[in-house]
Task: structure prediction
Amino acid sequence: MSVVIVYLLLLKATVTSFAGMGSLPQVRQDFVDTHHLVSADELSEAVLIGRATPGPMGAYVVAVGYQAAGVRGAIAGWLALVTPAFLALPLLVTVQRWLHLPRVRALVDAVVIAGATMLVPAAALLAFDGATQLLRLLY
Amino acid sequence: MNAPLRQLTWIFTRDVTFTFGGGNASMELLRRSLQSRGWIDAPTHALLMAVSRLTPGTSILAYCASGGWLLNGWRGTLAAVAGGSLPGSLIIFGLAATLGTLDRYALVRALLSVGMLAAAWLVLASAWVLLKPYVTTARRRRALVIVAIAATLYLIGWTPVRVLLVSAIAGALLPATKRGTLEHPPSPTATMPV
Result:
């Protein structure tokens, strides 16, 4: 499988998700079910490695790329990870340009408030996972 | 502004790469690092958070890209994105190529769980920093309506991006408040550099 195809498949997954692990269903469909580039076990291993290492959660795609196409696949995975980030620049410039309008500011405020609200269950899940794992180790 | 590139690269590398618990915890660490140097203020952090949540892909890297852009233009963007993604990716590549699954080691699992607890605290702190300017002013009723909408939609299983879009529409449609008075202080994003 061409490394360009690996990049495009991973990019399709990362650019259509809005969270680190949000790309997982698409990666599973393309790499495991459709193209059989990695096995289900290899994908699980990639996810575990991504979760067990510090840094962005979505970086597990580097391991998927490596499993699918070796070193060049890992580079393709990294490129697919960082490419969508650059879409933030036109969005930032646009928002800054229109931020003086009350409606736009109200819209951005609402996004900030809603984003902060969703952090609370995310924190609770993290705390629950961490505490459960720690208790399992201790007892 | 032109933040020193080397320092900028190091801060983004350190705060993203050496943090367990995902992007939310990293964003809170970045806020503390960047604000303590006077490079950004709270409204700018709120704007970066909003933009990064609306950008497809990994939110923390979108935060790096837009934060780097504000601090040092294109060079800042490239440095921050590389700093935030390359070291972690190299570690993952190294592990995928050699060790395989890590979580069979008890020590790794213990470190991971402690890291997750610390990250949970950081994420909660981040939520409070973002919400405080809204819920401690006279505009709290408007903020609480949006909190209620976002919490309800999220808890019934809507994806985060849908929750954000509906909240954004609700925010734009809710009746506007007066700005700059004691009863209605300007929103945190009102002082954003344009």
Helices of chain B lie at 5-17, 23-36, 42-54, 59-97, 106-135, 140-155, 160-173. Residues 5-126 of chain B form one domain. Chain B touches chain A through 101 residues (CB under 8 Å). Residues 179-186, 190-194 of chain B have pLDDT under 50 and may be disordered.
